[in-house]
Structure formats: structure tokens, C-alpha cells
Amino acid sequence: MLLQFQKGDLVRHLGLLDLQRTMQRALRRSGLPVAYSNGFNPHIVMTFASALSSGIPGDAELLDVSLSGEVTEEQCLSAMNRVLPPALQASRVRLVDDRFPKASAALRQAAYRITLRGGDARKIAEAVPAFRNETEIMAVRKTKRSETLVNIRPMLHELTAHYDEQTDTAVLTARVSFVEAATLKPDLLLDALCSYAGAELPPHEIRRTQLLGLSGDTPVPLIDL
Asked: Is residue 65 within 8 Å of residue 44, measured between CB atoms?
């Protein structure tokens, strides 16, 4: 079962371990024929397609769950939404064969919506077309062990901006690479964009709107791949 669910604003600070425990509890309460691992301490066989950073909500997160019996997609969706809280409601279920690769293995890109409020929001939005047209955008990627200067432009597949003068709000939509060797995190993208625009980062909200695989060169929602 591929379960697509939201991680709403009310639970955006829920960490991965807490989310795992919540989903395991919901799966047990759902009555669905979930599969358990073998061994001394059996646990539900499930994996998230991608861990979402604490503080960032998501509209289409994906959970891969092994089943041990026959059930329909409608039954799965109904059973899970009956036991999940409103902020973690599921939107879709897709049943796949056991031989189907794990969703995480097919993950290639992620889409984000970034809302900037006040401050230099307009300046940042106006810099997007020129920023997008650059062939090289250097940024410092920080890890626990090192800092590396990388060209993030090949990892940026789409970036648009819309500025609302009445509310002094800019909404950016971005589609970026999301693979182990080349992941562009939204905070690094924002840092690079603000530096390019000569602007200070205003109060902002980041939301992951989709996890994507590739069909040829075409991005496809991971659940549909």
C-alpha cells in the first residue's frame, strides 16, 4: 500500500520518530492486514519515501506499507482516515505488487511552495527571472563535518514567483533535485536567492507540495509512477 497523506500545519514540528510511532499506532488500530517483520521484536513493515524536516508541512507525503492480505484501495483509505487525526489525513491509496520497488528508490525531485511576508519579499520575487536564467549559481552547502561550495543551478528545475502588492506577500514555487548525490534543500535555495537579490530573508513559510519520480524526463507524482 502506498499511502499519500498530509503533514498539516498543526503537526509540522512532529519529528520523524514521533511520526513513525503515530503511523504504526494508526495502522494497528485500522484493522488492515499489515505485515510484520520476523524476529524477536516484530514491527510493522513500513517506510517513508522521504523524511520531512521538522517545522515544514507537506501536502503529499508518502508511506510505503507491506500488507499480508487482500484489501481494496477504498477500504485502506477509509480505514486509515478513520483513525488518523485531521492534520494527518490521507488523500490517496495505491495498491502495488510486492515486487514493486520501494517508493524511496524512485524519488528524484520535490516541489515546494515558499511564502515570503513583508520585508524584502518584493525584491526577492523580482530577482527570480534573472536568477533562473543564470547558468551557474554557487552556494555553500553545510554539513555536520564540512562546508562545500557547490553549483546548485543543475539541481533547480523550476522556479516561479508571484508578488501580491496588497498583502506584501511573495509566493515562490520551486521544483528541485532530491537524490542522495544532488539534493537542493529549500533553505539553501532561499539563501542563494537572497544573496543574489541583495536582500534579507523576511518571515517565511516553506511547504513541500509533492514528491516526484521521473517517467523518462517528465516529473510524475511518486504515487503515480
From this structure: yes
Three-class DSSP category at 48: strand
Distance CA 179, CA 169 (A): 31
Position 107 confidence tier, pLDDT thresholds 50, 70, 90: very high
The predicted pLDDT at position 163 comes to: 97
Predicted confidence band at 181 (pLDDT cuts at 50, 70, 90)? confident
pTM for the predicted model, two decimal places: 0.93
- Is there a contact between 34 and 65 (Cβ–Cβ < 8 Å)? yes
Q: Which amino acid is at 41?
A: N
Q: Contact, 9 vs 16, CB < 8 A?
A: no
**pLDDT attached to residue 147:** 83
All cell numbers assigned to 165: 502588492
Contact 58, 88 (CB under 8 A): no
Q: What pLDDT, in 10s, does the model give residues 64-87?
A: 999 999 999 999 999 999 999 999
CA atoms within 13 A on the CB side of 65: 31
Name the E strands within the chain.
2-7, 46-48, 58-65, 90-94, 109-117, 138-142, 147-151, 156-164, 169-179, 182-183, 204-215, 218-221
User: If you write DSSP's letter for every residue of 66-80 in order, what string do you get?
Assistant: -BSS---HHHHHHHH
